[in-house]
Amino acid sequence: MDKAIINFSAMRITILIFLMSCQILMSAQETELLETINYRSAVVKGTRSRDGRPGPKYWQNHTDYDISVRLDTAAKKIYGREYITYYNDSPDTLTNIVIRLYQNRYKMGAIRDSKVNPGNIHDGMKLDTMKINGQGIMLNSNGVLSNGTNLSIPLEDPLPSGGSLTLYCEWSYKIPLEPEFRRTGYYKDNSWFIGYFYPQIAVYDDMEVSPGMKGWDYMLFHKGLQEFYNDFSNFQVSIEVPEGFYVWATGNLTNAQDVYSQALLDRLDVARHSGELVHILSRDDLNNKLLIGNIWKFEANEVMDFGFGSAQKYLWDGTSVLAGDRRVFVNVAYHPESLFYPRVINIAKKTVTYASEVFPGIPFPYDHTTTFNGMLGGGMEFPMIANNSEANDSTFMILMTFHEICHNYLPFMMGINEKRYHFMDEGITEFITVKFLWDQYRLDFHSDNSTSTCMTGIYDDYSDLCISTQDNSSLYNSYAHINERNLFYQYLVKSVVPYMLFAEMVGEDRFLSAFKEFCERWKGKHPTPYDLFYTVNDVLNENYNWFWNAWFLDFGYPDMGIEMQDKNMIVKRMGARALPLPVHLTIEYLDGTSSTITKPMDIWKSGQRQISIEIEDFSKIKSVSLDYDKVPDIDHSNNCLTIN
């Protein structure tokens, strides 16, 4: 045989092997999750694992807080002191401690990502005393670093692994009073909700790699729109309020006998131990003296934060529901002029029952939940208590009530880093909220169509977001600047859609079983999105990385189109970043009838960019269209073909 022919044949074989290798490599890459470097490092260190379980060397630090705080309604200030014990359960020796001073968001010159009324700007949180291990700290000394709401203090004696330190602090600050969207402060008629009120130790974990602050959750200081990322800690909190003011808070009241009259104690006992609706404070009680003390003591263990509401003349409804083998006290405190809040107790009761028995089907994690009527627009969750506004829209009120109570699962039962991964807690919580609205009330918050028969109005909102300049990969949205206008779409629209589509693809029962296992594995811990994704893969025994990559980690958008080719209908993903979507193809016939061809979303799992659907007889067909009511799509111009 000619030598040239032999060389050419060898070259052909080499090219064929190379192409086959490329195909195998591409296939392998498609099944790998696009991990960040810090997650890969955590796997190597043994704190995380790719089966979705905490690694054998997983750890997290924790704190004990002993706080005394006084609400001065006359001076409109908070005065506080606290004793902190911080435990270093990490394998590292800590050379500094990072403290969060949230009220510095209102400090003159502070960086903010939401509007602040000029009347609420002040001098920040005033630290009168700061001691670490009994030694006073000069906050203007070398090495002390203030960055936004973060305060980093070098430790004269580094804190070894397994060690602890004590911190004593006295502080005060001016309470925000002027109307604006805010989660804490004064609202109206002597009603106050106090959150973010105490110097708090930041999280030191296995995931943070900020330059110069390795381990500390330091870079994303609080600018206003960020939410929680805290360690699970223990709280002893004493709250002093003016006489005649009631207090509702995170945790259990340990001195009820010192503040409540016997009449109130009796009503509370009925509400806590039966399903009867009890008007603990009715209109007839507004001018009665039913309190005997003004110092309230609360205890809460292994929770992520502490908040409290206080009011002088509020109505108070309570009842309890069974959640597993115990009763959960459900109660609502609200302004007496409220038109809607008398209905909220029934919504709150349904919420705890639905969440405990239906979805997620996990008994409510705490022994009580309080809804406090305070905020001026929207709602905000704290452990065991929500600070909620009142709106004229009854659908929104139902959604808000359920959503904020449901947050006791995420981020509070599992300690989600909301500042980085809002699509975990907000997305899943809103997904459950959408289900609750539909299952219990046949309402679709995202649709104006009163005859809607499905929960898909959210797809239109999502498609609108995707064509804006405000969209981004879900993983990086929290890092980017998100303005108030865009917050709703990123947190409560974009982050919900993939869970809806995934549950549709695998079946809600299977999705629920995987989510329950995720909760079991990460209860009381700090999971990342990768821990969720790998858990679902593990429980469902299938590699869904093609879905996680496309919907959460890549810069994708929903866009499918159709075209006719011979006897086939071609369905295409339009563009390099077009997301995998389920196919709902509607065929309208000339005789007025119609039929539907559906293909599940996993038809795209091998990376196909188009699929072919054979049509038997085009002569009888009037038109073929993709149903964009059931699937999000940014461009409807290529969704329909007229045949005859």
Q: What can you see in these coordinates?
A:
The structure is a single chain. With 644 residues, the chain is α+β, with helices and mostly antiparallel strands. Among the domains are: 3-45; 560-642, Immunoglobulin-like (Sandwich). 27% of the residues lie in helices and 27% in strands. It contains 14 helices and 29 strands. The strands form six sheets. The chain has an eight-stranded mixed β-sheet. The protein has a six-stranded mixed β-sheet with strand order 15-18-19-20-22-21, with helices on both faces. Strands 6-7-3-11 form a four-stranded antiparallel β-sheet, with no helix packed on it. Helix 5 (344-357) crosses helix 6, helix 7 (422-441) crosses helix 10 and helix 12 packs across helix 13. The longest helix has 28 residues, at 3-30. The chain is globular. The protein starts with a helix and ends with a strand. The relative contact order is 0.09. Mean pLDDT is 89; it is low at 1-29.
Helices and strands, with pairings:
Elements: H1 3-30, H2 37-45, E1 62-72, E2 77-87, E3 94-100, E4 126-132, E5 135-136, E6 145-147, E7 150-159, E8 164-174, E9 185-186, E10 191-194, E11 200-201, E12 233-240, E13 246-249, E14 252-253, H3 256-259, H4 262-273, E15 278-281, E16 295-303, E17 308-311, E18 315-323, E19 326-334, H5 344-357, E20 368-373, E21 379-382, E22 385-388, H6 394-406, H7 422-441, H8 457-466, H9 474-477, H10 484-494, H11 497-506, H12 508-522, H13 529-540, H14 545-553, E23 560-565, E24 568-573, E25 583-589, E26 594-599, E27 610-614, E28 621-626, E29 640-642
Parallel strand pairs: 1-12, 19-20, 20-22
Antiparallel strand pairs: 1-2, 2-8, 3-7, 3-11, 4-5, 4-8, 6-7, 9-10, 10-17, 12-16, 13-17, 14-16, 15-18, 18-19, 21-22, 23-24, 24-27, 25-26, 25-28, 28-29
Helix pairs in contact: 5-6, 6-7, 7-10, 8-10, 11-12, 12-13
